[in-house]
Amino acid sequence: MVSISPIDRKRAAKAPTLGEMYDLVRDYVKQETLDPIRGAGRWMAWAALGAVTLILGMTFLMLGLLRLVQSELFTANDGKTWIPYLIVVIVSVALVLSSKARIRKPSLHRKTGGI
User: pTM for this structure?
Assistant: First the structure.
């Protein structure tokens, strides 16, 4: 007859049951899948709010620039009413290109050392 050592008995007593294994795997899957998705959802919500705020601010800024150029530089009598619109379009395009040039990170993925 084979005798079981006390160390083997302790290991057998500490072995998780099937229910504990199920709970462990379920918690691990939640931790590795659902939590990052929730974090990304929060990130996306703040990004969307920031984008809407930025768009509204830039729209009002460009509208203010248009009204300033129309009232101070060009009058309705001279026949060149399209020039203020051209100026605002040029400034808007310059702001877009300037913003695009400042974007340095093409992806949200962190690059880790190694392979």
Answer: 0.59
